[in-house]
Each structure stands twice: as C-alpha cells, then as structure tokens.
Write a structure and sequence with these properties.
By secondary structure, this protein is α/β, with parallel strands linked by helices. The chain is built from 12 helices and 21 strands. It has 2 domains: about 325 residues, Aldolase class I (TIM Barrel, Alpha-Beta Barrel); about 90 residues, Golgi alpha-mannosidase II (Immunoglobulin-like, Sandwich). Helices cover about 25% and strands about 20% of the residues. The strands form 5 sheets. The chain has an 8-stranded parallel beta sheet. A 6-stranded antiparallel beta sheet has the order 14-15-16-21-18-19, with helices on one face. InterPro entries: Aldolase_TIM (IPR013785), GH (IPR017853), Glyco_hydro_27 (IPR002241), Glyco_hydro_b (IPR013780), Melibiase_C (IPR041233).
C-alpha cells in the first residue's frame, strides 16, 4: 500500500509519558510537559507529546497491569479517556468527547498530540458485544479470542477474514482523527509479526484523511527482512524490547543499530526506543522515582548513537522536573545539526569494545561526523585515520568535539598526508567529532 504522507527531514522527536508515569499520567502532567516542550525544546525540533498506554482504564496503576481491566469505551467499542484523569474529555452535559480538548490545547502550543493503543478490540467491548460503527456487525463477530497479548489483557485481536475487522479499524482511527490525533503508537504488533493488523491500521489511517504518524511496538526480534514492508506501512517501528536506564540496555542497541542504520530513509525509521533520561519512574512500570541511572558519559553515548543511526527521539523523563544537564543533552546544537543534515551513519570499525561510526554529509564537501565508542569498563586509546572516512578531509581538517565544544586543527605530513586522530575514550563513553575540511595554508 503506497503512503502519501509527506516526507520529513528528520525522524519524529517528542515526549512519551511511559518512562515517568507508566499507565497513570494525568491531563495536568501532559500539559506541564507540553508547555515545557513548547518553551524549551520546540525551537530545537522537538514537537510531539504522546500519552502512553491505558488512558482508557479507570483502575490503571503503577507497576503493572490489571487483569481483565475495566475500559471506558463508546457504544461502538472505541476507547475513550478516563474522565478522572482527563477531565477535559467530558463536556458539561456529560458527553465524553475524547481527547478533542486536550489535543486542541497541545496544538495551540505549536505541538502535535499522540496516543498509545493496543492491537485489536477491548475484551470488555467483546463481552458487551458492541456494534461496529456503520455496520450491522458486532464485536463478537470480528474478535479473534485466540489472539491475545502475552503481557496485557486489555484486548483481543481481530479476525481479518471478516469484513467487520477493517470497518472497526476505520471507525476507530476516524474517531481519533476527529479528535485531532497526530501520532498513534500501536503495541503488540511485531512479536509475533501481525502483518494483517499492520496493513489494517495503515489502511485506516490513509482513509481517515489525516496525516497521522504510525509507530509500531515492541520490536522483539524484528527481522531486517521485514524492513520494506514496515517502511511501506509505518513511519517508525521498534527494533527492541523496552529500553531502561541500564548500561547493558544501551550497549545491546549497538548490534541492532549497525544492521538497521544503513537502511534509514525519510518517513520510514527503525526506532531504538525512548530516551530514559532525566526524572523517570515517578509512577512507572519499573523502579522508584529517580534521576536516570545512566551516567552523563553513558547518556552522551546513547544520544550520539541514536542520532547517528537516525532513530526517532522520544524523551521518556518528566521534562519540568529533570535537571538542566538533561535539557542540555536534548538541545545540543552540534548534535541536532548532524541529526538534521547528515546522512544516516554507518559503522566503519567494529570489535567487541570499540565501535567507530561515520556520518557523511547529505551534500558533498560539507561537514562529516565521526564517533568512536568505548563499550568496555576501562578507558581506551584509539587512532582514527581520516583516509578511512572521505578524501575531502585531508590533508587538513578542523575537528570540534560535539559534546565539549573543544576544537583542534589536524594536519597531515609528508609521511601521512591524511591526518590521524589520536583519542582517549572514557569507559562506556564516546568521542564524537564534527570534521570540516580546510586548506592546508589556513592559519
């Protein structure tokens, strides 16, 4: 199915409520983060606010899911926000108008608004046997009660051989489009790989008439062989399980991204998952309230890898209560210039502990970027031969460290016309350099 969604220069950049609020985020917390983003991050390209899972569940709690949970839905089995957490959803007369008012307030800030969705139809709607909007079909006609998510019991999958299945997708997405939704993250889609469901949601988005970003999750063992299908039907798709603030989680993404990064293109992005930075765990699935357990060195490694590989950037921490150092990470001008203007990077050297990535410019003769990562637990010295990168970088190159701002001019000699970079990389760290060719007689 061809998609006519306008192509974007960079992957989506935004905030998602999961890492800090789990299933329990409230309207006020969403607006606090949206207001902070509009003031501090929007000028740097961050523009999307996403309410994650179970905004429709009255009994949602931190630290897990309720079995056979109650769900708020309309007479057609389509989820509605819980009024106690999202009071603007209910009009004075008592009618639940969904996220219409909240989306409008987010839009007024110059931002996009998104929601999370589980694959399929609520089990409670199947129990009530609700009507499928615009048809004579019922929820029990279209549900596949053998198709269940192993970690969340909110929904059943759909029987895609029944015409009412697509009618349900169409009516559900049409309702969300009517609310003003710009981004939909759909879960339980990729493991196992639910091809018909992906096609059904993509078709419903196309029919809705609204430009909606489709994000698929989680990415357990998703195969690179699925890449063309995913690129045709979705804007972004996860390539791992949930990533938390643990060094081993960050380290494990290197092997995944080295496969996916060369295939990134505008409008179709492999997603290395959210950024567990800043203040997280406030009421989340895992852990107590905390500043991220990743060290500053590890946070820089994460941000360098994600941006070099052109992963979408979805901040998971509570923005208003995060430390200024976190916001500096998210707004680093050299890093974001690379993110916008460089081609997707490739790993040009890989051994168990040292990984070197190179991002060439989109236009010949412009800035190159190279990053050397040290995955080991001890400091390492390393040498990069600029001849490995590009001819235009020799024999004189101006190098600026993306994270520290330190600059140097590197000049070759008669024995080595191309300069060599001798660097020291901290444990779990990165030396990330912006490289600009210069004339040899530049003072």
């Amino acid at each position: 199915m061809a998609r006519d969604t306008p192509q974007t220069l960079t992957p989506p950049m935004g905030w998602n409520s999961w890492d800090c609020y789990g299933t329990t985020v409230t309207e006020d917390e969403v607006l606090d983060n949206a207001t902070f983003m509009a003031t501090h991050l929007l000028p740097h390209g961050w523009d999307t606010i996403v309410v994650d899972i179970q905004w429709y569940e009255p009994g949602a709690r931190a630290g897990g899911y309720n079995d056979n949970a109650q769900v708020v839905f309309d007479e057609f089995g389509r989820q509605l926000p819980v009024p106690a957490r999202f009071p603007s959803a209910v009009e004075p007369g008592g009618n639940n108008t969904g996220f219409t008012a909240l989306a409008a307030r987010v839009h007024e800030l110059g931002l996009k608004f998104g929601i999370h969705l589980m694959r399929g139809i609520p089990r409670r709607a199947v129990e009530a046997n609700t009507t499928v909007f615009g048809t004579d079909y019922r929820a029990r006609d279209i549900a596949d009660t053998s198709s269940v998510c192993p970690w969340n019991s909110d929904n059943y999958g759909l029987n895609h051989e029944h015409p009412g299945a697509q009618a349900y997708y169409d009516s559900q997405i049409a309702l969300f489009a009517q609310w003003g939704i710009d981004f939909i993250k759909i879960d339980d889609m990729l493991f196992p790989f639910h091809e018909q469901a992906i096609e059904g949601y993509a078709r419903a988005i196309e029919r809705s008439g609204r430009n909606i970003t489709l994000s698929l999750s989680p990415g357990t063992n998703v195969s690179l062989n699925r890449r063309d299908f995913l690129a045709e039907h979705a804007t972004m798709w996860r390539i791992s399980d949930d990533l938390w603030d643990r060094w081993e989680d960050v380290r494990d993404q290197f092997d995944r991204l080295v496969q996916w990064a060369p295939h990134q293109r505008e409008g179709a992005w492999a997603d290395a998952d959210m950024l567990p930075l800043g203040k997280i765990g406030l009421r989340a699935e895992r852990g107590e309230p905390r500043e991220t357990r990743l060290t500053l060195t590890e946070q820089r490694t994460l941000m360098s890898l994600w941006t070099l590989a052109k992963s979408p950037l979805m901040m998971g921490g509570d923005l208003p209560s995060s430390e200024p150092e976190t916001i500096e990470l998210l707004t680093n001008p050299r890093l974001l210039t690379m993110y916008r203007n460089a081609a997707p990077a490739r790993q040009i050297h890989g051994e168990p502990d040292i990984r070197v990535w190179h991002a060439p410019p989109l236009t010949t003769g412009q800035t190159h970027y190279v990053a050397a990562f040290n995955l080991s637990d001890t400091e390492r010295n390393w040498t990069i031969d600029l001849a490995d990168l590009a001819p235009e970088l020799g024999p004189a190159t101006h190098a600026t460290n993306v994270w520290t701002g330190q600059t140097s001019r590197i000049v070759g000699n008669e024995h080595h016309p191309y300069p060599h970079l001798n660097i020291t990389i901290p444990a779990h760290g990165v030396v990330h350099l912006e490289l600009e060719p210069q004339e040899t007689d530049t003072p």
